[in-house]
Design a protein that fits this description.
Layout: E1 99-103, H1 110-119, E2 125-129, H2 130-134, H3 150-172, E3 176-181, H4 192-198, E4 204-208, H5 212-220, H6 230-240, E5 250-251, H7 258-274
Parallel strand pairs: 1-3, 1-4, 2-3, 4-5
Helix pairs in contact: 1-7, 3-4, 5-6
């Protein structure tokens, strides 16, 4: 075996400690035997982990480092009733985490008011529109304008349940939620009862009900499958009039623009938090 050019290697030692004579070795065999070098003590390895200790799945991430990974989210549960502050404090709905259901006929302005209200709150707020969720179905979409049947009824129920799950998850993670839907007072089990099951008793329903002339005018500005026939709009508006005897708060926004209606909605919600409606 050849070695790299450099200083000669020390001679190997015999078991007794005397050096072995090698060609070119300048030491004197009859001279005193130098003491054998003390071998280095190897480092003591750390004790093994207990046999049942689970191996860490990943190394901990120091705070302040930029990384991505799994973010644990609280599971969505039924939304409880909002707790009213002690009198005489006036609750501020703009700074409270809420679940709101905006009810009204087609053309009442539910979507516009809900979006504006959600956009201008001081706490995180989501807007979930039933029509938007219902139109997630692309192939096989059941449009009630083509005829109300079991298929369209099932898709409406599925969309409401999906909206309810979304609202519960938003609320569980500190994000308010406003939903909009055209539900009728003469079908409590499907309407308010269904929303109460899907979201929870803390849902605050508010009815948006302008006059028939305003609803017809706004519906005429729509396009696609969201524009209804005038006869259908009048029929829906007539059924919605039943909310006047329900005890739910009602906003007549016939002469109100969207920002003003959103401010009125805040006032209505402040009263609803202080004295939740019975529904």
């Amino acid at each position: 075996m050849q070695h790299a050019v450099g200083s000669p290697l020390p001679p190997p030692h015999r078991p007794g400690g005397a050096p072995q004579q090698q060609p070119g070795y300048l030491g004197t065999p009859s001279g005193p035997v130098p003491p054998a070098p003390v071998p280095a003590v190897p480092p003591v390895p750390p004790p093994p982990a207990p046999p049942h200790a689970p191996a860490p799945s990943h190394a901990p991430v120091a705070q302040g480092t930029e990384t991505t990974g799994h973010v644990p989210l609280p599971p969505g549960g039924p939304v409880p009733m909002p707790s009213a502050p002690p009198a005489p404090t006036v609750p501020d709905p703009a700074a409270t985490t809420l679940a709101v259901l905006l009810i009204g006929p087609a053309g009442a302005g539910k979507t516009s008011v809900a979006k504006f209200w959600a956009d201008h709150r001081r706490v995180p707020t989501a807007h979930v529109s039933l029509d938007d969720v219902r139109e997630w179905v692309r192939s096989g979409f059941a449009d009630p304008q083509s005829g109300w049947n079991d298929h369209s009824e099932a898709q409406y129920r599925l969309a409401r349940r999906t909206c309810g799950f979304a609202a519960r998850n938003f609320l569980a993670n500190g994000i308010s939620c406003i939903l909009d839907d055209a539900i009728f007072p003469d079908r409590p089990a499907v309407g308010l009862g269904g929303w109460k099951r899907h979201v929870g008793p803390g849902l605050l329903p508010v009815v948006l009900l302008p006059g028939l002339e305003v609803v017809l005018e706004r519906n005429a500005e729509r396009s696609g499958n969201r524009r209804l026939a005038d006869e259908e709009v009048a029929r829906i508006h007539g059924r919605m009039a039943g909310w006047y005897g329900s005890g739910l708060p009602i906003i007549d926004n016939s002469q109100l623009d969207v920002p003003t209606t959103a401010r009125v909605l805040d006032d209505v919600l402040a009263r609803a938090i202080a004295s939740p409606p019975k529904w």
